Every structure is written in structure tokens, then in C-alpha cells.
């Protein structure tokens, strides 16, 4: 790996829409839940790869606010997997000096899952390596709405005046308050849409889509995405 990446600029924050678990399973005549299981293995490996590459923030979309619309069986399987995976992730995070954060509305999960999330975040909060952000029951619109509610409340109670509102202050109300905007967004499985992911934060992020299904994603794919990022001329609306 080192030989390939020597001359690459490593993006500080990589966000991923992991997609294609279902199609990966279908292609093999397997149930969708097995695709999700395999997808979890890929998440774990990607965390390790990102830490090794020196990426500072990795944010993955694990479950969207719209994913509750899936069948009861699939949602149930995903919740079970999440329970199991949080225990594994705690080990991986400790072994790799990874700090775990969660974005999204946890209130909708069962109590034991909420406690699992809190434990994972609490026990890794002092780690100084990669910050691994998991978006669960996350939707960009939901996040902005929750921020708007908090802002209105602070306004009503006299803590915030309309004339004081800035992009920076608005950002501080989002789930990602202390996380820089992503530099690179990777979506697997070929779909060309955002699916309600980080709508505010992706304003000037470079986009990269691969046809590879998420369970097949690996270190080489990650490096290819970073190589593509290196070939981009980043612009933020101005001219060079
Ligand atoms: C991504 O894979 C995982 C989640 C959204 C939880 P999908 O389950 O969306 O897989 P496809 O898109 O149906 O192949
Ligand atoms: C996006 O994938 C959500 C997650 C990866 C958690 P989906 O498969 O749910 O998105 P759509 O339905 O293709 O837009
Ligand atoms: Mg999908």
C-alpha cells in the first residue's frame, strides 16, 4: 500500500454512502441480510484502512431515516446486526485508537441499542486517531429540522437573536457540529444520488461513485477513490 500512496494527498474527511449489500446478496442467491452481514465486515476493514492511510474523519451511512420503510424482517435483521456489530466495533476502535461518534436521531432505537451507542462513544472518546462517525437513523433533512427546532427554542428563550445567526452558528446546531465538512464522498453501487445524506455538509465535497457493491469494497477501491480525488481541481465557487 505504502508504495501507491506515497505521493497522494490524503483527504481529511471521507464520507461514504455504503450501498449495494442487497444486490451483492441477490447476485449470489443469498438473503439480503447476509449482504448486510458481509457489509459490516467491509465497514470494519475500511475503518482499519482509513486509520492506516491517515484519514482523520470517516463518516459512513449505516441506516437512513427512510430505511424504516423496508420490510419488518429486514429492519429487524439490521437492528440485530447493529447490536452485534457495536460490540465488535468497540474492540476494533480500542485496537486502532479510533474515536467513535454517532450522528442521527437515536431516540427511535430500542433502549439497549441507545445504551450500546452511548457506551461505544463514551469508551472511545479519548482516542486520538481516526474519528469514525456512524450515521444511524440519519437523514440530512431530519438533522436540519432538529437543528431548526433547537434554534427556535433558543430564540424564544432569548439565547439567540436572528441578526446573530451565521453559517458557523447554524453549523453548531447540527449533529456534525465539531466535525469538518467532508472532502470526498464515495458512493458504492453506482447510484448517482445523495439519498438524504449530509445535505448541508456536502456543499463543496468532491463526489466519487464506483459500481462496486459495498461488500466488495476494499483498500484498493479506497485508494482509487483517493487517486481520483487527487486528480480534481477543488473549487469553492471562486476562480484560481
Ligand atoms: C446498503 O445496501 C445498506 C443499507 C441501506 C442499510 P442496500 O440494502 O441499500 O443494498 P441495495 O441497494 O438494495 O443493493
Ligand atoms: C442510502 O442507501 C442509505 C444508506 C446507505 C444507509 P439506500 O439504498 O437506502 O438509498 P436509495 O434508496 O438507493 O436512495
Ligand atoms: Mg440501496
Fold and architecture overview:
The protein is of the alpha/beta class and 240 residues long. It has one domain: Decaprenyl diphosphate synthase-like (Undecaprenyl pyrophosphate synthetase), CATH 3.40.1180. It contains 8 helices and 6 strands; from the N terminus they run H-E-H-H-E-H-E-H-E-H-H-E-E-H. Strands 3-4-2-1-5-6 form a 6-stranded parallel sheet, sandwiched between helices. Strand 3, helix 5 and strand 4 form a beta-alpha-beta unit. Helix 2 crosses helix 3, helix 3 runs parallel beside helix 4 and helix 4 packs parallel to helix 5. The longest helix is centred in the middle third of the chain and has 24 residues. It is globular, with a radius of gyration of 18 Å. The two termini are 33 Å apart. The model has no long low-confidence stretch (mean pLDDT 97). Bound molecules: 3-methylbut-3-enyl trihydrogen diphosphate (IPE) (2 copies) and magnesium ion. The site of one 3-methylbut-3-enyl trihydrogen diphosphate (IPE) has 10 residues, from helix 2.
Amino acid at each position: 500500500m505504502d508504495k501507491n500512496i506515497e505521493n497522494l494527498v490524503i483527504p481529511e474527511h471521507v464520507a461514504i454512502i455504503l450501498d449495494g449489500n442487497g444486490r451483492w446478496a441477490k447476485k449470489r442467491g443469498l438473503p439480503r441480510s447476509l449482504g448486510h452481514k458481509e457489509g459490516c465486515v467491509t465497514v470494519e476493514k475500511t475503518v482499519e484502512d482509513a486509520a492506516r492511510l491517515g484519514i482523520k474523519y470517516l463518516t459512513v451511512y449505516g441506516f437512513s431515516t427512510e430505511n424504516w420503510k423496508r420490510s419488518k424482517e429486514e429492519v429487524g435483521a439490521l437492528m440485530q446486526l447493529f447490536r452485534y456489530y457495536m460490540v465488535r466495533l468497540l474492540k476494533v476502535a480500542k485496537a486502532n485508537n479510533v474515536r467513535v461518534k454517532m450522528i442521527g436521531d437515536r431516540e427511535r432505537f430500542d433502549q439497549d441499542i441507545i445504551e450500546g451507542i452511548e457506551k461505544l462513544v463514551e469508551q472511545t472518546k479519548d482516542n486520538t486517531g481516526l474519528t469514525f462517525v456512524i450515521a444511524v437513523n440519519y437523514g440530512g433533512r431530519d438533522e436540519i429540522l432538529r437543528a431548526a427546532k433547537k434554534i427556535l427554542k433558543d430564540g424564544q428563550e432569548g439565547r439567540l437573536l436572528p441578526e446573530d445567526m451565521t453559517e458557523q452558528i447554524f453549523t453548531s446546531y447540527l449533529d456534525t457540529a465539531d466535525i469538518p465538512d467532508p472532502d470526498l464522498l464515495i458512493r458504492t453501487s453506482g447510484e448517482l444520488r445523495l439519498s438524504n445524506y449530509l445535505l448541508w455538509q456536502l456543499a463543496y465535497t468532491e463526489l466519487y461513485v464506483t459500481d462496486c457493491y459495498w461488500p466488495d469494497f476494499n483498500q484498493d477501491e479506497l485508494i482509487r477513490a483517493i487517486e481520483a480525488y487527487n486528480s480534481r481541481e477543488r473549487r469553492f465557487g471562486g476562480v484560481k
